[in-house]
Design the sequence.
């Protein structure tokens, strides 16, 4: 993997104040070198394997598949340590933080999964950790707030703007610009200024690479369709990275109220150019999704590029379908999905038997995380 | 009125430059506030065009932006308010890049120009990303002010000073906008470095709030930008006159520094 | 593996009313046959691997090990599907339930982990599921109650007696005796009448078998000490089963307020003879532990036998040490342990550097489950 | 007084057997309740020795046990209360095995005997586990009543009938103790099967609460055991006399069935 330009077609870039330019450059260099260094790769692989529980399984869903008339395989990121794909990214970034000699690790979080993962990696490497989280999310993902605190992280509730993920990112950037010399900002998705979108996709591609191999073992070939949910887009980017050069159709599923690809227009926020929910003037719109992790008006720039180049098809589903998808998977397969990946499932359920997903299709879906964090919220809906 | 020309002229008169900031649309009477600032001794004004996600701003400017947006402020309304206001000093727009990008570079630059604004600061456009905008802005006679930070390395600082128009904005500290009790040591250091790099006016901002602080900074720079220390009282309901009085105090502070 | 007598030295047996004798006999036969049948073993292994995420890792703890002056390896049952070793047992019993042609699956639960696991297996196999849970535990393990409900199980709070695990077992037995022809009672630990203690130990030995192999790879030999927490004793039994024929010293850690081996005397409850906290007359005492899963006055009969024959050493630790052990592991290694296995860790922390666990010892500890279920409770203690 | 001998004798007189149950220590006046039961026409009494974990009992007997234990009832206190009470009918202890095991078989059996109890029911001792106890109980002249359930297969039922002493306890339904609105079909079926297996008195229990139900069961068995239907009013505060009256009603119900 050679160095990356930071551009994905018309998207990407590094839209940051001068104060952050050196840090972005330092990180780009550190990652470029590390990613080509066999020792770094070996250390990361070792951590992913012996600490985080990789490889994760590709699980058949016999009962749900039969009901839907397809063959559904779930890539089980819910089985990783801390319970979502976010761990893949943070372990890589924590290693880089050590390489760069920084003692402090900050993160933003929406669903809390990235915050928990970041707090986890920070504890494992003895880094000081602060996590920014919108007040709305602090409430609806209480369990994860507790987990972060037990892991020794300081959780700072963010009360500005929509008090969700986008505001947490703003606040993390504000911290970073004031602390950049001692602090690594561990962004949780394929968003932000270069090198983040590229780096995070590379750190997440283990999901897609594993899934492709496992699908070949199970199916004797590539699946017909590969589906993942898209918030910032890291689990999807990591998944799709493994299948871009196959014939599989790739589908990214957004939350209806946060469909940056589906309903956004080009814009620049949080350091890169991408598709963005915004008004006529360019004010960023507030996303609205039941899932904190997809409650984000933007999307990673590579997704904007994949959408523009028709490499991936993007669709969206609403909250109600998502909640029933969680219940349906729980009751048919005994797997409690997080609300975020339940978007992917909701689309699969709706599309099964239509031209989108004809009977007999083989489908690989990334189950990006487990639903423990969401059950209190879901029960409240009953 | 061209910004850089004006600032050079004032500097050559031995005057330390004062550029107060006002968030466009923060109150009904925001243009009056701007005028009071001019009356108080501002050499130019920085006009904030409020953005929903001001990631480089501290609590005061965040609040000011949110309040202005909640009042229905848009770039167009700020421009409309300014058109014909004839404040008598150069006006510098300050906003985040998405508002510029969304409107289109050319359209945005022309809108600035037609409302009497002559320069722009876009803090999230770093050197690599700003070239296109700079060129299209220049076409509309808008000067683009570039920023330098304490961590900006020398080679980069040279390029910034080279390409900046209007003045060079020295971000005096690593952090967001906002008043602070103590002046950051980095402010004077950066000012000194910038002055060594360029003959263009060097104005320092971020964390400057009192006349004493302004005077101290002006010892090594050509002037100061003051934002949060003025927007805080505005948010708290201060009259435009009393804001003008604050500017006047800053002016006096600077004038003590004035070197012949 | 040939049929088992149901006796472990002086302990074990089948102390049940006549109404349950045929069901116990049927289960014994079904398990004996299945356990010798390659197809059953292959199906179970497949489920454990592709559904439950086995094998689980044996994770080094570099920072905590250094602090303690030992080499600590954690057997990561927290990384299994549903988050504890309980899944190993329920998948086996769910397969047997299908074999026996029963459509209904009932379980008792303390910490809720077994209940969640049972509800999970029931969903996966399309079985109706009812879980009995003491009212005290329903409160302190709320998250798991929600999880069970989302999985389609009915959770029945038990208000009799101490309103904890022992009473949940009583209530499950009451259900079972009234429904035995259609219902399999999926006991969650190595307790109950024959064949349960034997069967559950066999279903859990995958923990110990894997750990032994992994320890040999990592250490080049067997560990000095193997430690597991003991409630009913299933994770410990499964762990120890893998090391009984090695030179490793085996240590079972009970909760101070539920130390059936440490402070119990022989008795009979819940279908078998074992060590039991009870008064002079034979009334069962109420256990008191911060951890719902160890809040049980009895222990599996094989542990009583291992204690009597000095095959395993049993110790106990108090609530406070357990809570600090959770925090310490979270902050040094980024791993959030359940309160139950934190007992094992608390003992290791206390014993390190003493004759019990001299500096340089290699220690394998079973981390039987993750702490998500406990964090709300722990934060409440702060 | 030997239980089996007495029951055979009564049966030979054409009488249907009635064995009411009382939880020892359920109230201060529990021995009076027992006496009222005898006065109401009981042929023998089942005395529950309360256990902390009555896993085979439904809500009523659970509550009765808990109440008795909360009052400080112990096996020793039950024995003490009975000693010298001279209730005039055979007494059958009913308890869970742990109380027996904890005391020691011999000690427990002797304690029973010395308090005038002549038989014991230990519902969680199935055939395989009870042999030792049966032998040691017999040494102390305690008859061990074994239980059979609807699911008990024929060969096993034969063994139970063979080894049981006092009577054979037919557990009329699959379930725990407790009054139920309808008599389970399994009750009559089991009674019929047991009668075909043995000449020993066959008494049915579990779920029998009304005189009509008692009469119906007695059509195929030698008698009935009634527990929850009597303990419910006791828990609710009924006087011993009114409990005696309930027993009398059961007696009348049974007497209608009496075959010449
Ligand atoms: C389980 C899970 N899936 C998906 C997401 C969305 O992030 P991304 O789109 O970067 O994968 C989150 C974010 O918190 C998450 O927790
Ligand atoms: C994580 C965990 N560990 C241990 C236990 C105790 O059970 P056992 O002693 O059978 O392993 C439980 C019981 O709920 C549990 O949830």
Sequence:
């Amino acid at each position: 993997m050679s160095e990356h330009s930071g551009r994905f077609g018309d998207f990407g870039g590094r839209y940051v104040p001068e104060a952050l330019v050196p840090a972005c450059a330092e990180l780009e260099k550190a990652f470029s070198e590390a990613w080509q260094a066999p020792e770094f790769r070996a250390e990361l692989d070792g951590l992913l394997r012996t600490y985080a529980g990789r490889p994760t399984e590709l699980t058949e869903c016999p009962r749900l598949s039969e009901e839907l008339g397809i063959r559904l395989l779930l890539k089980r990121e819910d089985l990783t340590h801390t319970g979502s794909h976010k761990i893949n990214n943070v372990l890589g970034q924590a290693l880089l933080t050590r390489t760069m000699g920084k003692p402090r690790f900050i993160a933003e979080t929406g669903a809390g999964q990235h915050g928990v993962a970041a707090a986890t990696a920070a504890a494992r490497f003895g880094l000081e950790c602060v996590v920014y989280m919108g007040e709305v999310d602090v409430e609806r993902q209480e369990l994860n707030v507790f987990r972060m605190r037990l892991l020794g992280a300081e959780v700072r509730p963010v009360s500005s703007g929509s008090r969700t993920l986008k505001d947490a990112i703003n606040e993390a950037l504000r911290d970073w610009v004031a602390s950049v010399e001692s602090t690594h900002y561990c962004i949780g998705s394929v968003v932000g200024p270069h090198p983040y979108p590229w780096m995070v996709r590379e750190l997440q591609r283990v999901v897609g690479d594993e899934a492709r191999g496992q699908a070949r073992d199970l199916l004797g070939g590539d699946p017909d369709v590969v589906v993942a949910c898209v918030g910032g887009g890291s689990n999807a980017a990591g998944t799709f990275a493994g299948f871009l050069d196959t014939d599989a159709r790739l589908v990214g599923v957004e939350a209806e109220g946060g469909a940056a690809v589906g309903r956004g227009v080009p814009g620049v926020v949080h350091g890169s150019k991408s598709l963005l929910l915004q008004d006529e003037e360019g004010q960023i719109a507030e996303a609205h999704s039941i899932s904190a992790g997809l409650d984000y008006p933007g999307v990673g720039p590579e997704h904007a590029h994949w959408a523009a180049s028709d490499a991936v098809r993007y669709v969206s589903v609403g909250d109600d379908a998502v909640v029933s998808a969680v219940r349906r998977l729980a009751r048919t397969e005994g797997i409690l999905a997080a609300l975020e990946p339940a978007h992917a499932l909701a689309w699969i359920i709706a599309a099964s038997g239509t031209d989108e997903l004809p009977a007999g299709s083989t489908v690989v879906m990334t189950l990006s995380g487990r639903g423990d964090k969401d059950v209190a919220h879901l029960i409240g809906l009953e | 009125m061209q910004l850089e020309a004006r600032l050079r002229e004032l500097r050559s008169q031995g005057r330390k430059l004062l550029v107060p900031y006002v968030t466009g649309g923060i109150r009904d009477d925001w243009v009056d506030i701007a005028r009071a600032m001019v009356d108080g001794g501002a050499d130019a004004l920085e006009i904030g065009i409020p953005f929903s996600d001001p990631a480089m701003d501290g609590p005061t400017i965040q609040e000011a932006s949110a309040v202005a947006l909640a009042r229905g402020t848009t770039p167009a309304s700020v421009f409309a308010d300014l058109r014909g206001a004839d404040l008598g000093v150069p006006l510098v727009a300050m906003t985040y890049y998405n508002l510029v990008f969304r409107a289109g570079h050319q359209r945005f630059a022309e809108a600035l120009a037609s409302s009497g604004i002559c320069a722009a600061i876009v803090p999230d456009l770093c050197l690599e990303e700003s070239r296109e905008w700079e060129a299209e802005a220049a076409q509309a006679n808008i000067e683009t002010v570039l920023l330098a930070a304490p961590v900006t390395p020398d080679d980069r600082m040279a390029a910034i000073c080279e390409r900046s128009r209007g003045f060079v904005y020295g971000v005096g500290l690593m952090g967001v906008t906002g008043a602070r009790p103590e002046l950051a040591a980095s402010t004077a250091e950066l000012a000194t470095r910038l002055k060594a790099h360029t003959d263009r006016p060097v104005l320092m901002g971020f964390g400057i709030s009192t006349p004493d602080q302004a005077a101290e900074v002006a010892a090594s720079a050509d002037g100061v930008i003051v934002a949060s220390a003025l927007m805080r009282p505005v948010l708290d309901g201060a009259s435009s006159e009393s804001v003008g009085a604050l500017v006047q105090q800053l002016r006096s502070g600077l004038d003590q520094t004035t070197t012949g």
Notes: Residues 55-84+205-381 of chain C form a domain with the Rossmann fold fold (CATH 3.40.50.1100). Residues 166 and 299 of chain C are 11 Å apart (CA to CA). The pocket of pyridoxal-5'-phosphate (ligand 2) is lined by residues C 84, 110-111, 113-114, 189, 229-236, 293-294, 338, 340-341, 368-369 (CB under 6 Å). Chain C touches chain D at residues 13-23, 160-161, 166-167, 169-170, 173-174, 177-181, 265-271, 273, 276, 278, 280-284 (CB under 8 Å).
